[in-house]
Design goal:
Elements: H1 8-14, H2 20-31, H3 35-47, H4 58-67, H5 76-106, H6 112-121, H7 125-140, H8 150-170, H9 185-196, H10 198-205, H11 212-229, H12 240-254, H13 259-275, H14 284-293, H15 295-301, H16 313-320, H17 328-348, H18 363-369, H19 378-392
Helix pairs in contact: 2-4, 2-8, 5-9, 5-10, 5-11, 5-13, 5-14, 5-17, 5-18, 6-7, 6-13, 7-8, 8-11, 9-11, 9-12, 14-15, 16-17
């Protein structure tokens, strides 16, 4: 990535570029005035677990056929290496998504406007969070980026959803041109980096040693996913150094406090505290967001400065055998993060993203992370329903 491609002039131009391939497919449906086709498309994207091409208009079917191909530069060995890396560290990477990646996206005052508007127009903020989480699991799970894999299908679906959102937002009279185009290339690249680069930095803050080979493979896997999501090649960093530079440039240009960013962060922290029952972790999200992102971003998104760990540093030292020293706080947070991640991901699977579509983690990852069997089977869900009926009545 050359210096010119990191210049403000170039980045300004990228804020005006969207995704013609997906935008044209969706535009054809809307402009034909096919109300039933539009409703069917939105239903497929928002409610169903998989896209069924036969039920979608011809323009969308053609898009799906063309966009599902991996780029020529995709390296299957690197992708498999990255999948194994995710299998080993997926719980902390998932926690990084909630405590670091998403808050960093919400700190971008222009890009977060889309998230805030769509949360009000079509769904709620919590559901958007679960949809993002599911895509990350589907991309990084074994085989997710193979032809027809769950990650490929999910990325295609998200890309189409982005195009539909652009079309509706630009015609809603709620969009400010000063924000650039909705879901533009700079915002897409920044979001992708929050999945590819930011988790690596979070793991290092948790005390996990990440090798250059692991960081490179993980970046490569997400670059392949970015290609399917419609991110232009010039916005995909070639290595970790370029990724760090691009994170810094996008942050310098976009970090700014705004009502939308604080509202989305509030929904995120509320979701995390709702999902994990009890009061043990109450207030932990704010502390972890500040620990992983630093004071600047934490202040921008409006999390409190209360340090939840001050109450627990002493007891946790004894529980985990941690001695006095400068690294006490990070080591305690890393250990607690793992326990919170385990509890959170188990409970998170009960959240329904659409009509009867629960958050799902493949069995191979469940076994690796020591999570309980998936609650989405008919019998287990009936048992859960019966327990709830007995509790209420």
């Amino acid at each position: 990535m050359t210096t010119d491609r990191l210049s403000d002039e170039f980045m300004d131009s990228m804020r005006q570029v969207m995704d013609p391939a997906a935008d044209d497919a969706v535009k054809a449906i809307f402009e034909q005035g096919e109300v039933q086709a539009v409703n069917a498309l939105m239903s497929e994207l928002l409610m169903n677990e998989q896209i069924v091409p036969e039920r979608l208009p011809q323009s969308v079917q053609q898009y799906l056929e063309n966009s599902g191909k991996l780029p020529d530069w995709a390296n299957p060995d690197k992708i498999e290496f990255a999948e194994n890396f995710f299998a080993r560290h997926g719980l902390l990477i998932s926690i990084s998504l909630f405590f670091s990646s998403l808050p960093m996206c919400y700190a971008c005052a222009k890009g977060v406007q889309v998230l805030h508007l769509t949360a009000r127009l079509h769904t709620d903020a919590k559901r958007r969070i679960t949809e993002t989480s599911q895509m990350i699991i589907n991309v990084a799970c074994p085989g997710g980026l193979k032809p027809g894999g769950s990650g490929v299908r999910d990325a295609q679906k998200v890309r189409l959803l982005h195009a539909a959102i652009r079309y509706l937002i630009l015609r809603s009279e709620q969009w400010d041109p000063a924000w650039g185009q909705p879901i533009n290339q700079e915002d897409l690249a920044g979001t992708l980096l929050s999945f590819s680069r930011i988790p690596i930095e979070s793991l290092e803050k948790f005390g996990i040693a990440v090798t250059p080979e692991e960081a490179d493979a993980y970046l490569h896997m997400w670059n392949v996913a970015g290609h399917i999501l419609g991110v232009r090649p010039e916005m995909l960093p070639d290595n970790a150094d370029e990724a760090r530079q691009l994170v810094a440039v996008i942050g310098r240009r976009n970090f700014e406090a705004c009502e939308a960013g604080r509202a989305m962060t509030g929904a995120l922290t509320e979701l995390m505290e709702e999902v994990v029952p009890g009061t043990v972790f109450r207030g932990m999200p704010d502390t972890m967001i500040r620990f992983l992102n630093g004071d600047e971003i934490a202040d921008i998104v409006g999390v409190s400065r209360q340090d939840w760990t001050l109450k627990l540093i002493g007891p946790m030292r004894r529980v985990f055998g941690i001695v006095e020293g400068e690294q006490d706080r990070s080591r305690v947070l890393a250990r607690i993060g793992e326990h919170f991640g385990h509890a959170f991901m188990e409970a998170f699977c009960w959240i329904e993203r659409g009509k009867g579509a629960p958050f799902q983690i493949p069995d191979v990852l469940r076994e690796q992370w020591g999570l309980k069997p998936h609650p989405g089977t008919l019998m287990s869900r009936l048992e859960h329903l019966w327990a709830e009926i007995k509790r209420v009545f």
